[in-house]
Amino acid sequence: MALQSLNSIRRGFEPWNDPAARPYIHFDRVTKKFGDFAAVNDLSLTIFEREFFALLGASGCGKSTLLRMLAGFEEPTSGRILLDGQDLRGVPPYRRPVNMMFQSYALFPHMTVEKNIAFGLKQDGMPAADIAARVAEMLRLVKLEEFAKRKPHQLSGGQRQRVALARSVAKRPKVLLLDEPLGALDKKLREETQFELMDLQQDLGLTFLVVTHDQEEAMTMADRIAILDKGEVMQVATPPEIYEAPGSRFVADFVGSVNLFQGQVTRRDAGRAEIAGPGLVIHTANPGDAEQGKTVHYAIRPEKIRLSSFPPENARANAAQGEIYDIAYLGDVTIYNVKLDSGQIVKSTVINSQRSADDPLTWGDRAWIAFQPDSGVVLTR
Amino acid sequence: MNTGGWSRFNIASVTLGFAFLYLPILLLVIYSFNASRLVTVWGGFSTQWYAALLQNQGLLDAAWVTLQVALVSATVATVLGTLAALALTRYTRFRGRILFSGMVFAPLVMPEVITGLSLLLLFVAIGLDRGMLTVTLAHITFAMCFVAVVVQSRLLTFDRSLEEAAMDLGATPVKTFFAITLPVIAPAIISGWMLAFTLSLDDLVIASFTSGPGATTLPMKIYSQVRLGVTPEINAICTILIAIVATGVIIASLVNKRREVQRLRDEQAAGRA
Ligand SMILES: Nc1ncnc2c1ncn2[C@@H]1O[C@H](COP(=O)(O)OP(=O)(O)OP(=O)(O)O)[C@@H](O)[C@H]1O
Ligand SMILES: [Mg+2]
């Protein structure tokens, strides 16, 4: 399937589809144990130069640990981490061409904003005039020119976050690691900053590795996303692929919301399959690796399920009848929970394109759900 | 506004408490300005005993010894105590850590007589002549653990990611320590130094055990004179000592207060974020 992120389409950038492209960062069967507990478990991952790569996963799944190993604060228990072909084992943090923006910002409390940003440049022995110029440029970039002489405790959370960003970018590292960079921001500022980060990455031509547990954020910014669970990679793909063609029930369920129907494969032709579940026959054009006779799951997103009070033209397949069980009005969309006659509850999202529908479905109404053969995917895992 | 806390009972108990603590000191200060030679009879205001102090070579010598001992021992104790605190908070997995931390903090609860006596035995055993050097060494030993406690409690709340950030930006561990760690924990180190200085200044027991001829400290001198009877001169020198110690305590608490205010502001700012 050729699903690409908007970001990579815009840039015409997809080295992961190019067999000749050389991986820039390579986690090679990395395991990190704390005592007996494996925070990262036999994980392999390749990231390309200038890529905007996101690590997405629930709290405690090992995202920060992965970044910390790349930055050099933790050594892998086993496995290798390669950066531009060089094995990083034993290289101390201060010799790695990698900079990190910390989850807690970690601004130096006794230094002004200016000094904080200049700190890394000073370590490189850059001439004072160049440092001043670079600091000024960074301050402009994060729009904090007036705050140069303030100490971190005199700044708001959002301003501190910008200082942390400026400080980590100031050295123009080959790779920038961002651990929950926008965690402390409100929704609006967060969305603004997401685009700023994307521009920044583009302008400076850096490789970004961003940790987040906000899927919208990952979807918006990243060229590719890795979904992690309990220290293992579940899937690596572009945002639309992750959403439209999840590789497993875990990923389908983790990203966005999903309806899962269980059933048995009753027919399997090239490019098509028929699945029979309780009270519902599914015809699909995305059979995946379904095999005749196997029990599989069919995953379909709520916005791809149509809802109506009368039966669709062909009610034999991809349609079922039920009763409106619950309604959640969210402004732009309304989510209906329909209890099918089989007992399963199905979510359907309806866009509120008109201010009020003529014939609104309401609690207890009988209703039909229906969907297209290419709307969902078959999952065998 | 909550004024309920100030019932009559509370006022009475606070007043009594303070009176109990400070009345003797106040009396001493007042009598240091007494014109009469008789300590218990008020003979009018005079500063003659302060002038007399300057003529009392014995007291002046003792004061000079004490000051030197206090300065040197406080400084060395601060360095050693800070290192001990760092070792205890940073290298949490070295062998015998529990034993080491126990040993660092034991002198806090050890009776001074025992500390003094054991140090005396040590100095005799290794054939070190008792004098200023031995008093200083003794003071370093016992002040060090107070410094370690103060600095350690600061280090426990120190955000290690500051150091990681510095190293991430290219600073070596040594550079990181001097550019980041030390400035951030400096207030605690200063408090520790003040504490060590005052402890050394007013120590009598340990000094009595470990000092020798020619190295009489001020507390020892005062104590030996008092046994011959309290003189207004003693009151005067004590008043000066009180002034020095009080200044030290006030500065230390101001430093702490500033740090407190700073932390509060940080938290408020973080809360707003
Ligand atoms: N120094 C450590 N010692 C022991 N366990 C640790 C240590 N650091 C992390 N862990 C454990 O490893 C697991 C992964 O931690 P990590 O910080 O990588 O999670 P995360 O994915 O970044 O989570 P979050 O989204 O909450 O930041 C957690 O279960 C955590 O308890
Ligand atoms: Mg984390």
UniProtKB/TrEMBL annotation, chain B:
Pfam families: BPD_transp_1 (PF00528)
UniProt GO cellular component terms: plasma membrane
Membrane-spanning intervals of the chain: 12-33, 62-86, 98-126, 132-156, 177-199, 234-255
Keyword field: Cell membrane, Membrane, Transmembrane, Transmembrane helix, Transport
Residues of the ABC transmembrane type-1 domain: 63-255
Compartment(s) of residence: Cell membrane
Family that this chain belongs to: Belongs to the binding-protein-dependent transport system permease family. CysTW subfamily.
Protein name, per record: ABC transporter permease subunit
